[in-house]
């Protein structure tokens, strides 16, 4: 890693990924010195056409997205803001008309990998659930919902704080899991692609 600012942009059809990170050569006054990455991480994706979550004869699709801004250090991660949503809910017929879902839930999934990580309860933000599988990975999740009978959903949160408590963070991954519901309880799930901030 050299001094200065590195900017990387990667775009893909039907699932664009944008990661912009600045690499700062400032030695942290923590147990282990490390470089920091400050910037944002985002992604978006589309659901396949489905009749499961709606009554439209053609079925319908939807678009999901997220953008998170954070400060990524080996000893701590701060997500100062996180915005996610679902929009472009339209039928798959020739008209492309708006289609409403009875309810929409969005689960934010964060994976943090590193070394010498202890029980994730030490670093869990309020409102998150966490699973601790090994000393190299934490899995955090939080669910937010919108209702009822709507054609879009936008949610936001932050700041969220994650602490390694003596361990070292290396990589941060995020993707959103979306579930669209019909009023009879039938549901259709889909995920955004995953984005990452790595080697910080």
* Morphology: elongated
Query: What is the tally of beta strands?
Result: 13
- Please provide the ordered H/E string of secondary-structure elements: EEEEEEEEEEEEE
Provide the number of structural domains. Answer: 1
Please state the structural category: mainly beta
> What's the story with the biggest beta sheet?
7 strands, antiparallel
Radius of gyration: 19 Å
Beta-strand content: over 45%
Count of alpha and pi helical runs: 0
> Residue-averaged pLDDT, rounded?
82
The span between the termini is 10 Å
Helix content: under 10%
Low-confidence runs of at least 5 consecutive residues: 1-35
What would you say this structure looks like, in words?
The chain has 200 residues and is mainly β. Helix content is 0%, strand content 59%. The chain is built from no helices and 13 strands. A hairpin with a 3-residue loop joins β4 (60-72) and β5 (76-91).
Structure in a nutshell:
The chain is mostly beta strands. The protein is 0% helix and 59% strand.
Topology (SSEs and partners):
Layout: E1 7-10, E2 17-24, E3 36-46, E4 60-72, E5 76-91, E6 101-115, E7 129-134, E8 137-150, E9 153-157, E10 160-163, E11 168-181, E12 187-191, E13 195-197
Antiparallel strand pairs: 1-2, 2-3, 3-4, 4-5, 5-9, 5-10, 6-8, 6-11, 7-8, 11-12, 11-13
């Amino acid at each position: 890693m050299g001094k200065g600012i590195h900017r990387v942009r990667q775009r893909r059809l039907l699932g664009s990924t944008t990661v912009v990170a600045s690499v700062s050569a400032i030695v942290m006054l923590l147990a282990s010195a490390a470089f920091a990455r400050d910037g944002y991480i985002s992604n978006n994706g589309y659901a396949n056409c489905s009749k499961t979550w709606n009554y439209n004869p053609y079925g319908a699709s939807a678009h999901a997205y997220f953008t998170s801004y954070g400060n990524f250090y080996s000893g701590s991660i701060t997500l100062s803001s996180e915005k996610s949503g679902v929009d472009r809910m339209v039928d798959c017929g020739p008209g492309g008309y708006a289609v409403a879902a009875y309810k929409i839930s969005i689960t934010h999934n964060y994976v943090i990998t590193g070394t010498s990580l202890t029980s994730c309860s030490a670093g869990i933000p309020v409102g998150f659930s966490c699973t601790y599988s090994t000393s190299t990975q934490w899995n955090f999740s939080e669910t937010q919902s919108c209702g009822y009978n709507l054609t879009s959903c936008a949610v936001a949160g932050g700041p969220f704080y994650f602490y390694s408590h003596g361990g070292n963070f290396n990589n941060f991954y995020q993707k959103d899991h979306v579930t669209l519901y019909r009023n009879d309880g039938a549901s259709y799930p889909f995920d955004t692609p995953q984005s990452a901030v790595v080697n910080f």
